[in-house]
Fold Phosphocarrier protein HPr.
Amino acid sequence: MNSPGARDITTALVIVAHSAQLAEGVCEVAAQMAPDVTVRAAGGTEDGRVGTSIPRVEAAIRTLLDEGFGVVVLTDLGSAVMAAETAKELIDEDSRVTVVDGPLIEGSVAAAVAAQNGYSHRQAARGATGPDPRHIASAATPEIAAAPVSEVEVREFTLVNEVGLHARPAALLARTIAGFDAEVLVDDVDGASVLSLMSLGRTQGQTIRVTASGPGASLALDAVAALIESGFGEGSGR
């Protein structure tokens, strides 16, 4: 059963790492951020050594394809990328599999949150690699700036949770924002991007400025307010 408010999920993840324990750990973290997304580990070799296994990666991808998902494959080091690309070629499902060249842990969290929000595997893969918040500011801000003044809403919020916008709160905030028909910026970066939110480095007691436009702007800001005021479920830290 999907979490309340979860969209139809069409994307799943495969984590390829040289260590089986590392792959399983990344799966665990991603599952915390996106509980309805299927994330499979393909780490280590068949005999339990450190390394990668093309057959293990291929089997994980095939299983998810058979279940009807588009697949995002995330890797740790160079040979893992080679194993993933080779497995993709063997499967010959180029249109349904995307191998990501990006940060493993942060990218996995970002891709999982995108998948939770109903994005395609290509969209989730793009989310796993960025974009750089400096580029988001220059690309996204004009869209809001061009909107009529009456359609733009701005609110400021103080972070009350103990750890600020670290991985889990950033994932929750991105998931919340993505659920509304609105363009939302948090301190001039894309509010629906986990990596962009984490890159802000905002901590407890700091104030963030949230700008929203579009039909769902007010509802989005109300939801952001409720989430922040609740301490992202972590308490205020007081």
About this structure: The CA atoms of residues 71 and 97 lie 5 Å apart. The mean pLDDT is 86.
